[in-house]
Structures are given as C-alpha cells and as structure tokens.
Design a protein that fits this description.
Pfam families: FeS_assembly_P (PF01883). This protein is α+β, with helices and mostly antiparallel strands. It contains 4 helices and 3 strands; from the N terminus they run ααββαβα. The chain has a single domain, classed as Fe-S cluster assembly (FSCA) (GMP Synthetase, Chain A, domain 3). The longest helix has 19 residues.
C-alpha cells in the first residue's frame, strides 16, 4: 500500500507540473515553471498540495491574480483535495532560476 501511495503522489506531482506549465507570466512569453517562479511543490498523503512560488518582482502587475490562478488550476486536478499557494520573495527571483529552455526561448543563450 505504501508503494502505491508514493506512486500516486509522484504521479500527482507530475500532473501538477503539467498544469503549472500552462500558466504564463503575462509580461514574458514563458510558462511560470520554466521561468523558475515555482520554488517547491508539496503533496501530502491526503492529496493536499502546497505550492511555494515567487514573482519576477514584488510589484508584479499579476501579484494578486497569478497565485490565485496557480491555486485554482492545481485545485482543479481530480486527485487534489485542497491546494494552497504561498508567495515568497526569499530568495528573490533572478534570471539564473530560468530553465535552459526559457533562456533559449527569450534569446538569452
């Protein structure tokens, strides 16, 4: 049973990442996952999800709506019982957090 739990939470983690890759920063044509805005995703055995994320700047125009969109999209996944988003600016986001794919897309490589 325990192995099944691990597979399910891992599988759910992968689904969460897929959903996060559908959310874009409105100012940068790259999804928030590839941008490095997602710092961590936790899934407990009750399928409650906590996403720790940041924004490109604290006064980002989507400071209110982006975390809400992340919460709503993650919560809409069938296996997710509840979703919470924690916004942090420690450490502050920097371009080093972007994936190679994001840097390539933005012409930074």
């Amino acid at each position: 049973m325990e192995t099944e739990e691990k597979i399910n939470t891992q599988e759910l983690g992968e689904k969460i990442v897929k959903v996060l890759k559908t959310i874009y920063d409105p100012e940068i044509p790259v999804d928030i996952y590839e941008l490095g805005l997602i710092y961590d995703v936790f899934v407990n055995e009750d399928y409650e999800v906590k996403v720790i994320m940041t924004l490109t700047t604290p006064n980002c125009p989507v400071a209110e709506s982006l975390p809400q969109e992340v919460r709503d999209k993650v919560a809409s996944l069938k296996m997710v019982k509840d979703a919470e988003v924690e916004l942090t600016f420690d450490p502050a986001w920097s371009q080093e957090l972007m994936s190679e794919e994001a840097k390539l897309e933005l012409g930074m490589l």
